Amino acid sequence: MNGDSRYARNDVFWRRMISKRRFQIALFIAAELTAGCEPQNQPLTPSPVPSATPRKIDEWIGRWNGPEGTYLEISKSGDTYEIRIKDLDKAQTYQGTAAGDTISFERNGRAETIRSGNGEQAGMKWLLDKKNCLVIRKGEGYCRD
Fold first, then answer.
1. Could you read off the pLDDT of 28-46 as tens digits, one per residue?
2. Alpha carbon distance 105, 137 (integer Å)
3. What DSSP assignment string belongs to the chain?
4. How far apart, in whole angstroms, are the C-alpha atoms of residue 76 and residue 145?
5. How far is CA 108 from the centre of its chain?
6. Which one, 53, 85, 127, 129, has least CB within 10 Å?
7. In this structure, are residues 135 and 114 in contact, taking their beta carbons and an 8 Å threshold?
8. Using one digit for the tens of pLDDT, what is the confidence trace for 63-93?
9. Is the pTM for the entire model greater than 0.90?
């Protein structure tokens, strides 16, 4: 064997490897590009028609009392709920939306949820005997008598 044939075989080897690698890269790119695609021109799924019966959370509209003069007040305008929370320092207002049997809103950059509960779930000794409460999180609850 002369020296040229060895280099020729080596050259063919590297051309095949580069070609194989390019194919793998092209295949990977094609797979990534098509992974996020969804079929186009699909019919829109109809949105659910609101029922004529009021939602359970609409019964929450009004004032709910907490300990030491705190309260939660909920009002509704269209599909949006206005949530007014009075703590020991001040009252603040937030906009909320219904999500199932809860109302979701954002307070100080944090997602919060109002849900139905009782005094025990509120985790506050002043509300332990209450049955009809709204709870935002453990340690923050408001009840009606």
1. 676 666 665 555 555 444 4
2. 13
3. --HHHHHHHHHHHHHHHHHHHHHHHHHHHHHHHHHT---SSPPPPPPPPPPSSPPGGGGG-EEEE-GGG-EEEEEEETTEEEEEEE-SS-EEEEEEEEETTEEEEEETTEEEEEEEE-HHHHT-GGGTT-SEEEEEETTEEEEE-
4. 22
5. 16
6. 53
7. yes
8. 999 988 999 999 999 989 999 999 988 999 9
9. no
Contacts of residue 53, defined as CB under 8 A and 6 or more positions apart, other chains included, come to none
Q: Are 75 and 95 in contact (CB under 8 A)?
A: no
Give the count of beta carbons closer than 10 Å to the beta carbon of residue 102. 16
Closest to 65 (Cα-Cα) out of 54, 73, 57: 73
pLDDT digits (tens, 9 = 90+) for 45-56: 444 444 434 568
